[in-house]
Amino acid sequence: MAAANVEDQRLTAPEEPRRRVPFLTVVDPAGDAAFDASTPSRKEIKQNIKHLEYVCSGCGEEKRADQMKACGRCKIARYCSTQCQKSDWKRHKLDCVVPSEGGDVGQYRDVTLKLAARVGANEALMDNILLHSVLQLGLLRDSSLAEKYVIRVTCGNSPADLQGYMNGLINGDGPPEDVQVLLTCQAIDRIPLEEAPPLVRRFEMEKRARYIQSGGRDPFVIIYFVNEEGDMGVSIHGRPVCEAMLAYMSTKPTMEIRSAMFGTSVVPLDEKAIIQQFNNMIRMDKSNKFKLRSYPMPKPTQDPVNASIEEASS
Ligand SMILES: [Zn+2]
Ligand SMILES: [Zn+2]
Asked: Region entry Disordered: which residue ranges (predicted)?
């Protein structure tokens, strides 16, 4: 279970925006140690990423990421075979994203989805999404609501070094280029099952049936990721909400926020606080053990129309 989290102590504010001033920085070694102890280890994450399963954009089958091939143009869509890629191209060419075509906004689109695909390797973050789902689906009232909706997590990205980025802006140097970005969660919404993308609906049907067949009785939640433009990522997840989690949420839990500016405050663990906790956790991961920080993707190769399948890179 995700422990009460701590707001990034290094989020800072300028004292005088007009001059070159050092930003207030508070480092909290005790907080860093607690963070490391309460989140998955680097080794665990690495193992999990290796075993992540992606959904074939063509046929909807799930396979291990390293057994799939990525669209050579956007490197987002994944396919289990050349045949699936070919048969899906007519549909996929409409949303096949080339970073250079999107201008400023599009530059990091694929980075968002690349990082979002790794959230499934991190149970602490997935727990946050599940806690949110309990509230949003109203599972404390009626656990069958998990069957009528799916959970859509909208992600974006933000400069990893917010302080350096803000420094550059405020001191008039302009936004630094090629800055490392980290994954952010913008919103978590429930979508009626019948309005969910076809791949998600198919996934839901198969996964839920398999879960029930294996004797699962807990509310089973389907989670998928999109970027801010609504493009869907390659991983979809089915997760049961265990009784302990339901019990925890029924106690009306609180969360402690420690901020360099505002001191410590205790807030109810509501939907907004859970998203904040999710984002804090990624921002606190300065050593990038979660692998949720990255530089923008390299420019795509020319001749995108050919869009030949390339081996999925690690
Ligand atoms: Zn396929
Ligand atoms: Zn593509």
From this structure: 293-314
Domain count, the chain: 1
Condensed to tens digits (0 to 9), the pLDDT of residues 178-208 reads 788 999 999 999 999 999 998 899 899 999 9
Q: Is residue 75 part of a domain?
A: no
Residue 207 lies in a domain: yes
Identify the bridge partners of residue 82 per DSSP, sorted by sequence position. none
The ligand placed nearest to the CA atom of residue 305 is 2
- Return the pLDDT at 33: 79
Residue 69 forms part of a structural domain? no
CA distance 127 to 124: 5
Give residue 57 CA to ligand 1 midpoint distance, Å: 7
- Ligand 2 mean position, distance from CA 233 (Å): 12
| pTM assigned to the model | 0.77
Give the DSSP H/E element, type plus range, for residue 244: helix 243-250
Q: Which ligand is nearest to the CA of 202?
A: 1
Residue 311 within a domain: no
Separation CA 214–CA 203 (nearest Å)? 16
